[in-house]
Write a structure and sequence with these properties.
Elements: E1 6-11, E2 17-18, E3 34-39, H1 44-48, H2 86-92, E4 101-106, H3 112-123, E5 129-133, H4 138-148, E6 156-159, H5 163-173, E7 177-181, H6 198-215, E8 218-223, H7 236-240, E9 243-248, E10 255-263, E11 271-277, E12 280-283, H8 287-291, E13 302-309, E14 312-324, E15 332-335, H9 339-353, E16 360-366, H10 378-390, E17 398-400, E18 403-404, E19 410-411, H11 416-425, E20 430-434, E21 447-451, H12 454-460
Parallel strand pairs: 4-8, 4-9, 5-6, 5-7, 7-8, 15-16, 17-20, 20-21
Antiparallel strand pairs: 1-2, 1-3, 9-10, 10-11, 11-12, 13-14, 14-16, 18-19
Helix pairs in contact: 3-4, 5-6
Motif (RadA KNRFG motif): 262-266
Binding site for ATP: 106-113
Keywords: ATP-binding, DNA damage, DNA repair, DNA-binding, Hydrolase, Metal-binding, Nucleotide-binding, Stress response, Zinc, Zinc-finger
Length: 464
C-alpha cells in the first residue's frame, strides 16, 4: 500500500507551521498567509551535516557546546575581510566576518549581481573566492565581467541550484568568500516543494548557513523582494542570517543606496552610496555633495537639512509645494518622508504657528531619492512648507534641523555638533537648530541661531 504523503501549512510571513489550515497565523497575526507544503523524509543530513574535518575546527560564530563564564570570553576584535569598496565596508561594519552570512536584497536591475561580481573579482586576487550562479549562465556572468573590465583570472565560478551539491563543491574548493545568487532559486532534493517556496527557502538558507558557520566561509546570499519592497520568502530567513542589507534606487536615477537593516557586526541603518556607470557601480565617498546639486536660483520651498545615517551626517534638500486645492479634501503627498507625520506636523503648524494650510494641497519631496527615517527633519519640513506658502525663498547658505513636538516646542536631536560641522564643510554659513544643540565651540564662519519653539523659528526667518 502506498504511503500517504504528509503535508503541513506554513506561514509565508514568519515561517510558523501548522497541521491544519487557518485564516490567521497564530504566531505573527498575518491573515491568509498559510500555504500547504508537502513534507519529505526527515532532513537528517541538513540538520547534522558534518563538513570536511579540516574545516570543522572553525571556532567562530557557531557555538561549540562548551560552557564558559562571561568574564572568560575572549574579547579580541573579530577578524575582517576588506571588500576593496569603502562604502560596502562601511555598511557591513568594517568588512566581511569569516563565518558570517550576509543577505543582500533589492529590486530587479538595482545592481545586486553587479556589485557582488565586482567585489569577488577583486577579492579573488588575494584569497580564494567562489561565485555560485543559479539564475544566469556562466557565459552571461563572464560577458558582464568583460564589459565592466574586471580581473577575472582568479575568480572560481559554479552554475548550480542544488544546495547539497554546492556545499560539496565548496568543501573541495575551500573558498574564504562565497556568493549564492540567489536563494530563491536554490533547492534541496529532500524537500518536496518547488524552488522559491517557503519550505525550500527556509531549508536551503539553514543548510548554507550551517556550512558557513562550520567552515568559516563568509557567505553572501542574494534575495529577491516583493512588490512592496520587502524581502521575499519566510520572515525566518531574516532571523537566520547575520546581516541584511538592501540595495535601493530607481531606474531613472544613476545613484544607488545600500542600507543595513540588520547587522550583528556593525551599525544598523548605515548607508552607502554608489553611482551606476558603464564600468559598474562606483562608490561615492562624499554623498552630501551629490544630493546638494542645487539650482543657481533657489526657489521658495527649498531648505537643506542634515540627517544622521548610521555613523555619519548626510546633507539633503527638502522641497515643498503648497498650492490652492480644487478638491474638497486637499491632497497630502510625501515622497521620502512619512505621510502620517506630515499630517501631524501641519496640524502643529496651524495650532502653534498660526499658519493655516488646511485648504491647500501640500507636496513634499526629498531630493535624490533619499528616505528620511528620523525626526530631525521636522523643523526643516515645516519651514519649507511656510516658505512655499508665503512664496519667499530662504537663504542659499541656510541649514535647519530639529524635532518638533506636539506643543510646538523644538526638541534636540543626536549628534548636533557633527551635523553642524558637516554643513560648515559644504559652505553653509547659517543654521537654525534646537536650543539644546547650540554650539559648545564656535565654528569659524557659521552663525548658529538656537530656537526653543515654532514661533521663535518663524520670527528668526521673518515669516511670522
Amino acid at each position: 500500500m502506498a504511503k500517504k504523503t504528509k503535508t503541513a501549512f506554513v506561514c509565508n510571513e514568519c515561517g510558523a507551521d501548522y497541521s491544519k489550515w487557518a485564516g490567521q497565523c497564530g504566531a505573527c497575526g498575518a491573515w491568509n498567509s498559510l500555504s500547504e507544503v508537502r513534507l519529505g523524509p526527515a532532513h537528517t543530513d541538513s540538520r547534522s551535516a558534518n563538513f570536511t574535518d579540516a574545516q570543522a575546527g572553525y571556532a567562530g560564530a557557531a557555538g561549540q557546546g562548551k560552557v564558559q563564564k562571561l568574564s572568560e570570553i575572549d574579547l579580541s576584535e573579530l577578524p575582517r575581510i576588506p571588500t576593496n569598496a569603502s562604502e560596502l565596508d562601511r555598511v557591513l561594519g568594517g568588512g566581511l566576518v569569516p563565518g558570517s552570512v550576509v543577505l543582500i536584497g533589492g529590486h530587479p536591475g538595482a545592481g545586486k549581481s553587479t556589485v557582488l561580481l565586482q567585489t569577488l573579482c577583486h577579492l579573488s586576487q588575494t584569497l580564494p573566492a567562489l561565485y555560485v550562479t543559479g539564475e544566469e549562465s556562466l557565459q552571461q556572468v563572464a560577458m558582464r565581467a568583460k564589459r565592466l573590465g574586471l580581473p577575472a583570472d582568479h575568480l572560481q565560478m559554479l552554475s548550480e541550484t542544488n544546495v547539497e551539491q554546492i556545499c560539496l563543491t565548496a568543501g573541495e574548493v575551500k573558498p574564504k568568500v562565497m556568493v549564492v545568487d540567489s536563494i530563491q532559486v536554490m533547492h534541496m532534493a529532500e524537500v518536496q516543494s518547488a524552488p522559491g517556496s517557503v519550505a525550500q527557502v527556509r531549508e536551503s538558507a539553514a543548510y548554507l548557513t550551517r556550512f558557513a558557520k562550520q567552515t568559516g566561509t563568509a557567505l553572501i546570499l542574494v534575495g529577491h523582494v516583493t512588490k512592496d519592497g520587502s524581502l521575499a520568502g519566510p520572515k525566518v530567513l531574516e532571523h537566520i542570517i547575520d546581516c541584511s542589507i538592501m540595495l535601493e534606487g530607481t531606474h531613472d536615477s544613476r545613484f544607488r543606496t545600500l542600507r543595513a537593516h540588520k547587522n550583528r557586526f556593525g551599525a544598523v541603518n548605515e548607508l552607502g552610496v554608489f553611482a551606476m556607470t558603464e564600468q559598474g557601480l562606483k562608490e561615492v565617498s562624499n554623498p552630501s555633495a551629490i544630493f546638494l546639486q542645487r539650482a543657481e536660483e533657489i526657489a521658495a520651498g527649498s531648505v537643506v537639512t542634515s540627517v544622521w545615517e548610521g555613523t555619519r551626517p548626510l546633507l539633503v534638500e527638502l522641497q515643498a509645494l503648497v498650492d490652492d486645492s480644487s478638491l474638497g479634501n486637499p491632497r497630502r503627498v510625501a515622497v521620502g518622508l512619512d505621510q502620517n507625520r506630515l499630517n501631524m506636523l501641519l496640524a502643529v503648524l496651524h495650532r502653534h504657528g498660526g499658519v493655516l494650510v488646511g485648504d491647500q494641497d501640500v507636496f513634499i519631496n526629498v531630493v535624490g531619492g533619499v528616505k528620511v527615517m528620523e525626526t530631525s527633519a521636522d523643523l526643516t519640513l515645516l519651514m519649507a512648507v511656510v516658505s512655499s506658502f508665503r512664496n519667499r525663498a530662504l537663504d542659499r547658505d541656510l541649514m535647519i534641523f530639529g524635532e518638533v513636538g506636539l506643543a510646538g516646542e523644538i526638541r534636540p536631536v543626536p549628534s548636533g555638533q557633527e551635523r553642524l560641522r558637516e554643513a560648515a564643510k559644504h559652505g553653509f554659513r547659517k543654521a537654525i537648530v534646537p536650543a539644546a544643540n547650540r554650539l559648545k565651540a564656535d565654528i569659524e564662519g557659521m552663525q548658529v541661531i538656537p530656537v526653543k519653539s515654532l514661533l521663535e523659528t518663524l520670527d528668526a526667518l521673518g515669516m511670522h
